[in-house]
Specification:
There is one protein chain. By secondary structure, the protein is α/β, with parallel strands linked by helices. It has one domain: 2,3-Dihydroxybiphenyl 1,2-Dioxygenase, domain 1, CATH 3.10.180. It contains three helices and seven strands; from the N terminus they run αβαββββαββ. A four-stranded mixed sheet has the order 1-4-3-2, with helices on one face. It starts with a helix and ends in a 5-residue tail after the last strand.
Length: 130
């Protein structure tokens, strides 16, 4: 009897998953950083992200930023490996005013990579519209 119940659950789960799709989107990305205030300063001044207060008020271990419709970036105090970060592991931002942003960064490419204070690679690009 137990075997029959498990079998029915497996078949019903498969039928549900084959008929259902989900609108999965990124909610937030959390980065471990050595110095929360130093990293927050970078994301405020270089990426010009908008910081927002957490639902719990000011928290000693982190800060939070809006990254537009993509969700949020959370910075959390933690141990960061000092060795070089691999550029293949990165997160990317799209900006419509790419040329203006490049002037801001003083670089002349359509895609730019740079590192935050903890060595995380960041990509900013003009998106697929260009």
């Amino acid at each position: 009897m137990r075997f029959l119940i498990v079998l029915l659950l497996i078949f019903s789960a498969n039928a549900y998953s084959e008929e259902t799709t989900f609108d999965i989107q990124i909610d937030h990305v959390t980065l471990l950083v050595a110095d929360v205030d130093r990293s927050a300063d970078f994301y405020l001044k270089i990426l010009m992200l908008t910081e927002f207060e957490t639902p719990w008020g000011k928290i000693p271990w982190g800060r939070m930023f809006s990254i537009g419709t993509a969700g949020e970036l959370h910075l959390a105090k933690g141990t960061v490996q000092a060795d070089e970060q691999n550029k293949q592991v990165h997160y990317a931002f799209r900006v419509k005013e790419f040329d203006d942003y490049l002037k801001f960064l003083e670089d002349g490419v359509r895609q730019v990579y740079f590192q935050d204070p903890d060595g995380y690679w960041i990509e900013v690009n003009s998106g697929q519209d260009d």
